[in-house]
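Example 9 (inverse folding). The structure is encoded as follows.
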């Protein structure tokens, strides 16, 4: 096989890889559009719960009891698949910084995403690993596994839960528990308490559960959308690189083909005199 034929075969393989990556990029873009719809609805749910909590706590501010010694738990949202740059490395770096500053040796880590798991194994002794979501339809299963992990922890002195995830172009550390710690009402409350079917303490406990469920949904949707944005951009750069490589190979193959044609012409021209010797004499 000539060098040109080898390059042609290599160019064909590059083209196939390029088409696969371009399809993956298209799927990532489609996933972000779907997640954007889910995320908008979920953010509205969280906002409604927080508004309700603010109104409720304006009447019962004493129900939020501050605790000095809460066991820190860090929920790290990484990716289950690759082709997203340093997505998981950024989560691991932020987690290390947060744990060193506030968590200490008692911190527990819940790492979500197969690509994130190896980055958490060396540094965190108290760690649980959960398979992440590749598409939006898998998020309810992931959420159920997170809830099971949180329920299995249940420290006696209470839990300070932090979520570390990608959102708004950066890595965010958001406090999830204790709930509503940043939503104290401003100004005087309503003149009359709300009409409840449950005791106020029980109502607040169930409201906290609903808020945590909705907030975790929001974090998972936000993280998966950021992951797919990162993947689409990463694959876009890879496709452009392969296009340039294919074009370069095409030019090289054309140049080699021209050299082959020139060599063929030279061979024909060199053999032309010897062919003339064997031509029959038309005058004899």
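The amino acid assigned to each position is listed next.
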């Amino acid at each position: 096989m000539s060098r040109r034929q080898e390059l042609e075969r290599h160019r064909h393989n590059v083209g196939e890889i390029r088409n696969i990556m371009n399809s993956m990029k298209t799927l990532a873009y489609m996933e972000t559009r779907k997640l954007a719809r889910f995320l908008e609805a979920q953010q509205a749910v969280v906002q409604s719960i927080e508004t309700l909590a603010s109104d409720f706590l304006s009447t019962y501010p004493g129900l939020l009891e501050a605790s000095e010694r809460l066991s820190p738990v860090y929920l790290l949202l990484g990716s289950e698949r690759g082709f997203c740059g340093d997505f998981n490395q950024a989560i691991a770096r932020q987690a290390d910084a947060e744990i060193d500053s506030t968590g200490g040796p008692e911190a527990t880590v819940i790492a979500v995403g197969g690509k994130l798991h190896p980055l958490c194994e060396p540094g965190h002794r108290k760690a649980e690993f959960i398979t992440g979501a590749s598409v939006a339809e898998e998020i309810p299963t992931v959420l159920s596994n997170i809830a099971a992990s949180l329920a299995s922890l249940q420290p006696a002195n209470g839990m300070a839960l932090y979520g570390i995830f990608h959102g708004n172009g950066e890595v965010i550390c958001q406090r999830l528990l204790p709930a509503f710690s940043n939503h104290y009402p401003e100004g005087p409350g309503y003149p009359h308490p709300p009409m409840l079917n449950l005791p106020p303490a029980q109502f607040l406990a169930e409201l906290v559960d609903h808020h945590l469920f909705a907030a975790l949904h929001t974090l998972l949707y936000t993280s998966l959308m950021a992951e797919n944005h990162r993947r689409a951009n990463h694959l876009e750069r890879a496709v452009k690189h392969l296009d340039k490589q294919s074009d370069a190979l095409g030019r090289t193959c054309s140049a080699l083909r021209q050299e082959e044609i020139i060599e063929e012409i030279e061979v024909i021209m060199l053999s032309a005199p010897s062919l003339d010797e064997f031509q029959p004499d038309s005058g004899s």
